[in-house]
């Protein structure tokens, strides 16, 4: 009984509501990223885009989701059925887990069970936040590999091998670009990285090359054009999820859009101040409007910045053609890795000079 009473039920309730809220927002944003992608493509191609399901087609994502739910579910007889189901489940799970360490805003205050509570808008503020994201993203490639192999289809397997090679190749320059950033931050905690940028210069000012490398690698990690080789429809007949239907296919498609949303949020957090409101003193804003209203505005700032990156992802898709596979590998190994190494060395040298002066 004493153990039961010792449990901080308010803390559990807060985290549960935060998890449900962030997961729900991620799913809704992923749904409407499909709508935004089709509308942006329509504008760029001088056509209307979705315009039948609701005013301006705003219910089109709901119609697409309902269609996936109602479609016949087919599992090939020659597939490994357990792994065939595990693949999309793992892809969706890893896509959702990455949002756990991203700070979406500062603390909010409310009263619960007669106690004053101060809750940070972050599920888990762990001291290895960046490593956690890299670990989860690295595990996400298994969803692609398992799905391609379990389908027992040669085109799916080729696409899965392409995807695994691509992810491995571009995780290296992405990690090296973050090493240079960590020389400035001195911390792996996402909240401390954001805190260092609040009411100050954003890290993109000090690490423009690192940000560019991270941005390019994010396109490759999300399998977005011009790095969509694992899903090259005109080469591999729909890619690694060719044999999937119904919501198993929906999980793969949703995971890609959630990854795009989370990648944008991570770039905002690391290089663009996170939830910091540009050109506004957050401490002064808190004194004038209160903690809760400031946290709301900070969350809005975070989502606006993230939305701009999502638009950039979509814009690039309908602007740049797909690379050949040899071009993709050459860019990763022969261009981005040397650039990331050079950026790391220059950052280390500049940091050493600033810390010890020229006479070291």
Strand and helix map with partners:
Layout: H1 2-6, H2 9-44, H3 60-70, H4 81-97, E1 107-112, E2 115-120, H5 129-150, H6 154-185, H7 190-197, H8 203-206, H9 208-221, H10 233-236, H11 246-271, H12 282-289, H13 291-317, H14 325-356
Antiparallel strand pairs: 1-2
Helix pairs in contact: 2-3, 2-11, 2-13, 3-11, 4-5, 4-11, 5-6, 6-9, 6-14, 9-11, 9-14, 11-13, 12-13
Describe this structure in words.
The chain is mostly helical. The chain has one domain (67-356). The chain contains 14 helices and two strands. It has helices spanning 2-6, 9-44, 60-70, 81-97, 129-150, 154-185, 190-197, 203-206, 208-221, 233-236, 246-271, 282-289, 291-317, 325-356; strands at residues 107-112, 115-120. The chain has a two-stranded antiparallel sheet with strand order 1-2. Helix 6 (154-185) packs parallel to helix 14, helix 9 packs antiparallel against helix 11 and helix 12 crosses helix 13 (291-317). The radius of gyration is 22 Å and the shape is globular. The model has no long low-confidence stretch (mean pLDDT 87).
- By oligomeric state, this entry counts as single chain
Biggest sheet overview: 2 strands, antiparallel
Strand runs, count? 2
Q: Determine the number of helices (DSSP H or I, runs of at least 4 residues).
A: 14
Low-confidence blocks of residues = none
**How many domains make up the 3D coordinates?**
1
Question: In which range does the helix fraction lie?
Answer: 55-70%
């Amino acid at each position: 009984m004493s153990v039961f009473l010792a449990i901080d039920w308010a803390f559990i309730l807060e985290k549960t509501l935060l998890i449900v809220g962030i997961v729900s927002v991620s799913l809704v944003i992923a749904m409407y990223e499909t709508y935004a992608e089709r509308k942006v493509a329509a504008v760029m191609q001088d056509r209307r885009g979705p315009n039948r399901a609701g005013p301006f087609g705003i219910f089109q994502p709901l119609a697409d989701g309902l269609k996936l739910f109602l479609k016949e579910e087919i599992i090939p007889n020659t597939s490994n059925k357990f792994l065939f189901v595990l693949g999309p489940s793992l892809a969706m799970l890893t896509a959702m887990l990455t949002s756990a360490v991203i700070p979406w805003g500062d603390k909010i205050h409310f009263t619960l069970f007669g106690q004053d509570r101060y809750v940070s808008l972050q599920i888990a503020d762990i001291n290895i936040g960046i490593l956690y994201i890299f670990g989860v993203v690295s595990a996400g490639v298994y969803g692609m590999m398992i799905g391609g192999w379990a389908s027992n289809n040669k085109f799916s397997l080729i696409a899965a091998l392409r995807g695994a090679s691509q992810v491995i190749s571009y995780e290296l320059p992405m990690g090296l670009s973050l090493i240079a950033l960590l020389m400035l931050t001195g911390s792996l905690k996402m909240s401390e990285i954001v805190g260092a940028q609040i009411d100050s210069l954003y890290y993109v000012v000090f690490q423009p090359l690192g940000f560019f490398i991270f941005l390019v690698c994010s396109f490759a990690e999300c399998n977005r054009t011009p790095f969509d080789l694992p899903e090259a429809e005109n080469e591999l007949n729909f890619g690694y999820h060719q044999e999937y239907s119904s919501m198993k296919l929906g999980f793969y498609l949703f995971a890609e859009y959630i990854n795009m949303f989370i990648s944008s949020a991570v770039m905002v957090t690391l290089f663009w101040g996170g939830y910091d409101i540009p050109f506004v003193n957050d401490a002064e804003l808190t004194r004038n409007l209160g903690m809760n209203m400031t946290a709301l505005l900070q969350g809005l700032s975070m989502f606006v910045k993230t939305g701009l990156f999502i638009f950039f992802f979509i814009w690039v898709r309908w602007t740049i053609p797909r690379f050949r596979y040899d071009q993709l590998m050459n860019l990763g190994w022969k261009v981005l890795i040397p650039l990331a190494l050079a950026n790391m060395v220059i950052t280390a040298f500049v940091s050493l000079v600033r810390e010890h002066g020229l006479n070291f």
